[in-house]
Structures are given as structure tokens and as C-alpha cells.
Amino acid sequence: MDKNYVVTKSNKLITCNYDLSLQEQKIILTLASMVQPNDTEFKEYEFKIKDFIELLGIKDQSKYTELPKITRELKKKVFDIREGTDIIQVSWLGGVRYKTKEGMLILSLDKGLKPYLLQLKELYTSYKLENVLSLKSKYSIRIYEIFKSNLFKKNIEIEIEDLRDMIGANEKTYNLYSNFKSKILIRTQEELNLKTDISFNYEEIKTGRKVTSIKFIIKQNKVSKSEIAVTATGTLKGQQTIEDINNINIVKGIIDNINDDGAMAIFNAANGDIKKIKEKYSIISKFKKVKNLTGAMIDAIKEDWTTQESYKNTFNNFDAREKSPRYQYLEEQILIGHATEKERREFDEMRG
Asked: For the domain bounded by 1-117, which CATH number is listed?
């Protein structure tokens, strides 16, 4: 389990109505974050039981009997997805196996989720797993996803009844707006602002004297404006397709402090192999100082570095090259796609 993994979900799945506990959501989102962009089938994912207990925050003495109860209840839960005039009933978990002797847990997602998690080409949203793992309320996670999928709109209006249904706030106490506002809305606002990459303000809309809808103003929080939610198809500024933007966001979800051009260059160098990007970054990130992160990542991918020693063996030459203003200029031109053929040849010669 890695908090830097990226969750990518169909917006149809994000906005449908369901009620999962905080722990159940963390299980599903952790599994979703392990799905790779090129996967065509769900895999079985293996975890150490003790790691999963820590993830779910189970601390009482019965923690090793509590976890099977949670997965058993999650296996039972079914929700509806509307496809045109059809209603599809979908489960969350496919397989659950406890290898008690080895202390391992094997989980898989239900195959009914495939259209909403695999091979997504349009109307989907990606975000870093760490944005939701630290949240303490099940409602905060659901509202985060709904708002993240609508971030490109900047503001949305939702009827209170519809919002309650989407996030599973079915308790009678939340029929009273003042309770919904104080116990869910305000608390979620505080949590998202402090712990995630988005924040929001809101305006109450009344019918007569009763608040019936809310207009939410959604903002980026702690990240650059280029990290938008992927929610449509077409071409964006700079001729970047929605698929390009999603690939950039996936890489930026793995690598800290990388710009869009660098992320795209790394993705292309790895031919979209996210596992390879994660492996090479795990090597490079162990060094205290890397002056040219993009260049180092590309070298690591192309030369298939397997250890820190691989980096050390080429570090001196790489460090000398990156001090050259000409090298830096050529690399920048290549990354943004402006290099001439002559400049590309010169750059290749400098790289050796």
C-alpha cells in the first residue's frame, strides 16, 4: 500500500448513491489505487494483515477478529448504477481470502465494477490516495470525490436531498438541515481544507424560508492549477488531450515537485508503465539531492536502474552535464517539444 498511488474512477461511479463506512471506503479506494491504466482485468491484491489493520485504524484487542467482520459486511453490500433505463446492481468485493498462517490478506474487486475502473477514456477523475486516507469522516471522503470530479466547473449547485442520498447520510437526524450543516458540511469543509488538495465555500439557496439547495464554490488547495480533475473529452490548451492531462496527473501523483512537461516526458519514456515509474522513483527519491529530477528519471527508465548503485555509477557524468547551461537549454526545448533535429542530436551527444 502506497499513499502516492492514484485512484481513477468513472464519474458515474463517483456520483451514484451508496453508503459505505469509513473503513469500507478505505478498503475499496486502496484497491482502486492499485489498478493500473493498462489493466484489462482486475487482479488479486495481497496485503499483510497487520498493514491493513493499521490502514483501517483498528486498535482494540479484537483487531484480528474485527477485520474479517468488516470484509464480510462489505461483501454483502450492493448498490445501484443507472445505465440509461437499466438499473445494474453491483457489489464491491469479488474475492476475500485470509492466509492466516502467513498473516496475509488477498482481496479482489467485483467484476461488476470493471466498466467504472478499467480502461477509462472519458468522464473520469483521478486523485492521489493520500488525499482520502487521512480523512476521519465517511462523508468527507464522498464529498471530496464529488467535488474533485466537478473541480473544472469551479462551482456546482446540488439539492440537499440529492447530496444526502449520494453520500449515504440516511439517518433521520440529517433530515434537519441545521444538523446536516453542523455535523457534516462544516466538518467536511474543515477536513478538506486541512488535509486534501481542494477546499470549498458554499452559499445556501432557499425556497421560501427553507434551505433546499447549496451552491458550492470549489477551489484548488496546495497544488498548482494545472492539476485539474479529468472529467471530459476533447483537446485542452496547448493541444493536450484529456488523456494527456490524466497521464500527467498520475505521474505527478507519484513524483513530488515535477512540472507538467517533466511528468509527460517521464510517462512517455516509460511507455505508460506506471509500475516502472514507481520503481525508478523509489530509487532516485532516496538521494538527498537530485538537481535534474526529470533527466534522472528518464535515465533510470531507459537504462533500467535496479539499485541506488546504478545511480551512483552515472551520477558524476550526469551531474557534470546538468551544470552546463547549454545542456539545460536543450533538455528544456526537448521537453516542451520545440527542439530542432540538430538540437536533438546535440543533446544525445552530450548525454553520451
From this structure: 1.10.10.10
